[in-house]
Amino acid sequence: MPVPVPRQRAVPAAECGPAQVSAVALTEEAYRDTAALGAALTVLLVEDDPSGALVPELRDSAGRPIRVRTARNLTEAGRLLTPDVHCILLDLALPAAGCTDTEDGAELAVLRQVLELAPRHAVIALTASGDAERGAEAVRVGAQDYLFRDELDSRLLSRAIRYAVERKRSDTAERRLAEGRLRAQENRRLERGLLPTPLLEGAALRFAARYRPGRSRALLGGDFYDAVRTPDGTVHAMIGDVCGHGPDEAALGVELRIAWRALTLAGLCGDELLGTLQEVLEHERSDDEIFATLCTVDIAPDGRRAGLCLAGHPAPLLIRPGATPVPRLLPFDNNGPALGLLPGARWPRTQVELGAEWSLMLYTDGLIEGRTSPGGPRLGQDGMLGMIHRQLSEGLRGEDLLRAAVSEVRHLNGDELTDDVAVVLLDRVA
User: Which is the CATH superfamily of the domain at 195-428?
Assistant: First the structure.
């Protein structure tokens, strides 16, 4: 009886205020343009003297006038705070909106309100002469600098504005870098947690795997693999490849791997299992053109024979012991279509004899589609067989063999591989 597959649930998009995001982007773009092009600065003076006489005539380092806008209160400041404003001069004597002098924290309440209103703008606090303690507290709260109102001159103020703008830009860059690192760490922890942990307790087999995603700075791609041992002693292993290697393909690969493990532990195998996986793929994929190749093997409890199913995937490589082990491909005449291509497709199961001692290597096409030289022909399965044969003759086995194989493929290609690469090796020693 086919296993029912739940319909895909609609995932709501993350909400975000488009107007706010646009304003932030424009503000940060204005900072970048000013730094890169040396454009004239614009300053917003927030103080209750409508004449604006507090600030002398200002010029930047190139001698160009610094534009000064004046707001008498925070309401006016909000209207004048356009993306081309680079710095806010705030008179700390200005009363804060909705705050009395007797309230706790009222002394710097106006500064806190400005910082909330303009979190991405540089702010210079203006305070009474000699009140350095209040100015220092303003910097601790979030201002970039402080100046005494009665000691302002054009040169001092112009230099302070340029310093405050650059310091804010530097602080913003550091914050974004720290946030980016944190997101990268979280993504790496998440992706690492999604990589499989084979369930092979009690199996007389050795397991090794190598995984290299094609995406830059990623741990997970569209390739996926897994191996489990069922209560009857059968060892099931699989490897697959979702077309593409972006984050969507990686997520779909994880879904297929988890579904395969659940279905295998539930007792499905062969054509019935692949048919159900195709249903999962059809329900979960974002586009009807997306498909996945798959190779599954189920190794009998005595370890001497296995069932093989191929869904558009390259055949595994079998290595038997000897003075010079010679690898060969398992039969691939019954290779069925990739999952997601043909509704109602069938996938024959081929019985193969393994012998008493053997190594079985499952791999994705990223291992064989790299070039043998920059601009040269692809490695292909024949080239892979020759490469593995030579590495075996050098005494490489297990994890060392897989590491050398992936490393040589990258070296032959002359550059980093753009496709995901996954390789699994199962060894049985009598």
Answer: PPM-type phosphatase domain (3.60.40.10)
Please state whether the predicted TM-score (pTM) of the whole model is above 0.85.
no
384 near 367, Cβ under 8 Å?
A: yes
Q: What is the pLDDT of residues 344-401, one digit of tens each?
A: 899 999 999 999 999 999 999 999 999 998 889 999 999 999 999 999 999 999 999 9
> Do residues 425 and 360 make contact, with C-beta atoms less than 8 angstroms apart?
yes
Topology (CATH) of 25-177: Rossmann fold (3.40.50)
Q: Render pLDDT for 281-312 as a digit per residue (tens, 0 to 9).
A: 999 999 999 999 999 999 999 999 999 999 99
Residue 42: helix, strand or coil by DSSP? strand
* Phi, psi values for residue 210, rounded to 5°: -130, 140
Question: Which residues face 235 on adjacent strands?
Answer: 229, 299
3-class DSSP string for 95-132: CCCCCCCCCCCHHHHHHHHHHHHCCCCEEEEEECCCCH
Domain parsing of the chain, residue ranges: 25-177, 195-428
Which among 416, 209, 419, 208 is positioned nearest to 293, based on CA atoms? 419
Q: How far is CA 153 from the centre of its chain?
A: 50
CB 238 within 8 A of CB 260: yes
The answer to whether 25-177 and 195-428 have equal CATH topology is no
Question: What separation in angstroms does the CA of 339 have from each of 189, 220, 245, 296?
Answer: 29, 20, 17, 13
Q: In 155-234, where do the E strands start and end?
A: 206-212, 223-229
Instruction: Please classify residue 65 by burial: count the beta carbons closer than 10 Å to its beta carbon, then call 0-12 exposed, 13-18 middle and 19+ buried.
Output: exposed
Q: Are 379 and 372 in contact (CB under 8 A)?
A: yes
Structural contact between residues 81 and 117, judged by C-beta atoms closer than 8 angstroms = yes
Residue labelled with tokens 């303003």: 138
